[in-house]
Amino acid sequence: MINYWPFSFSMKQHFIIYLFGLLLLTSCQREIEPTTIVGYIAQGSTPEFIVIEHPDSLTPTYIAISENTSFSGGSPIIGNIAEVVYLPSESDEVANIAVSIAADKTFPQALGRWMSRDDRRLKVAIELQPDGKIVQSEPSDILRYTSWHLTGEDDIIELCGTLSLPPEPPKKDKKTKKVAEADTILPPARRIRAFRVKAEIGFDNNNKVMVITSPKGRKSKLYRV
Description:
5-stranded mixed beta barrel; elongated; disordered N terminus
């Protein structure tokens, strides 16, 4: 009988053992478990990669986006908060692969310019920026919004700022009933008070509106410009 196998019987044995060992090694490799990270979508994110920064981490996490990555919630834009489930890479030469990306839906709704429409009240015009800052054009003194952030509640954000109050009346001496000399020399200074208020984003007659509620329950509306 002609032996068409190019190796000797001993070599065939070694080859079969090698194949068996290779199959056994492949089958015994552990399956990569998905990892979840929650943080801010950072600068450098692109349609192909998402960069996540976490307050407890010194370095950002780079995660590749594939055609199989699923998206939910709001737009995954820079500055938004996102929960990313990904398959971690075991090699520096291979990128982490995103399985799913769930971004906060309130963040993109809050961004942009907002303005009051009630002429009977103080006119307010502000712009909410992705970095959490607020640029305000009106008013310039009495009421100042400085920053904003998400609350974890759908359609609810928090606005922070300062309120300039009228100066306190000069103090009078209880015995003489006269104003203290220092109070007659120095001009009265306005009082600055910091505040935090919650605002709900919704619709009013098909117009996007932000309803701000003060600590005392007073409500005011700003409309998307």
